[in-house]
Write a structure and sequence with these properties.
8 helices; 349 residues; alpha/beta
């Protein structure tokens, strides 16, 4: 079994400094220990051959659009037919953003892609890094067996959800997540959740519960994300450069939209409260999202609102935003909507 192991940094590739006890990247020292643990714990598996690549090396909180582009350039160079699977080691802080980005761009890659993180450095007895990496290898083995056993089912890889994350929560239960649905880790938490997540052991018995065809996005994001269904190759292989031109805004009491500079912005993604609402009072001045909407309209910048189903909202404030020209997005998570917009408004090379 041949696996491409891509390191990007993060806690899973870090160690605690003897000088100050703080964590920092130490991939060169940590990676051999991770791989040795996997080989020892999976002795019953057929030979596992890891090919290692480290296109970027950063704590995930320091991830930038530029570093994403470096990673994507490397991913475009890989011969995926040469591997049974790809494992990407990534930090937890921005895992929920890299995961949906890759789920969109790598859909249709000819082997499974699994993002793996660690909640603590590997010397911490509560670290889940070893378990997560081991489970990713087990997943690739299972999917390889299925692919070999049913070539017709896996012949049209464009229709297979093949980008996952596997992660053991602090209660000791490990889950398989569709990368496209991964939610942000909560405050004061080390747990990850997603819509449709399945316990890893149950997934390994069937390997179908979180697999299958999914809708890529709604009408607002049809180009280029939804056009993936018609592509003969994944979107990754389109030549483009992601830009930092999508402004994401979360509503809060006291917001003043005049504080936001729209220079260089190609699109605004405005989050909504859980009722699909935001301040749209006509007497709220610069605190009204209608004020921002007017600024966007004057600048020729589209403003998207999420989450919002234009066919089932309940409040007049939402009605005012839609009638004012805001573009509703529904389904998935905010980070998925954000990464879809990054792709939509990327610089085409």
């Amino acid at each position: 079994m041949k696996i491409l192991l891509i390191t990007t940094g993060g806690t899973i590739c870090s160690s605690s400094s003897a000088d100050n006890g703080k964590n920092d990247i130490n991939t060169e020292d940590v990676l051999p220990k991770l791989l040795d643990n996997v080989r020892q714990s999976l002795k019953s598996y057929k030979h596992i051959d890891f090919e290692i690549a480290s296109p970027i090396n950063t704590l995930s909180e320091n991830m930038t659009v530029h570093l994403w582009n470096v990673l994507l350039d490397y991913l475009r160079s890989v011969d995926y037919d040469s591997f049974d699977g790809v494992i990407i080691l990534h930090g937890t802080d921005t895992l929920h953003m890299t995961a949906p980005l890759l789920s969109i761009l790598m859909r249709g890659i000819s082997c499974p892609v699994i993002l793996v993180s660690g909640n603590r450095v590997i010397t911490d007895p509560e670290s889940n890094a070893f378990d997560n990496l081991r489970d990713a290898v087990r997943m690739i083995s299972k999917l390889s067996e299925l692919s070999a056993g049913d070539e017709e089912q896996y012949a049209n890889t464009e229709d297979i959800i093949n980008v996952y994350s596997v992660y053991r929560n602090m209660d000791g239960v490990s889950y398989v997540h569709k990368a496209s649905e991964l939610e942000e880790c909560g405050d004061y938490s080390e747990d990850f959740f997603s819509r449709g997540m399945v316990e890893t052991e149950a997934w390994l018995e069937s390997a179908i519960s979180v697999d299958g065809v999914e809708s890529v996005g709604n009408e607002a994001l049809h180009e280029p994300a939804d056009s993936n269904k018609q592509l003969k190759s994944p979107l990754l292989f389109n030549r483009f450069e992601l830009m930092d031109n999508v402004l994401y805004i979360k509503p809060y009491v006291g917001i003043n939209y005049d504080r936001y500079n729209l220079e260089g912005v190609s699109a605004v993604l405005h989050g909504l409260y859980h009722s699909s609402t935001a301040n749209a009072g006509n007497d709220s001045g610069a605190s009204s999202a209608l004020h921002l909407l007017e600024r966007c309209r004057s600048a020729g910048i589209p403003m998207y609102i999420f989450p919002c189903d234009e066919n089932s909202y309940r409040y007049i404030t939402t009605k005012a935003l839609i009638e004012g020209g805001a573009i509703p997005i529904t389904g998935g998570t905010w980070n998925r909507a954000y990464t879809q917009l990054l792709i939509k408004y990327a610089h085409i090379e």
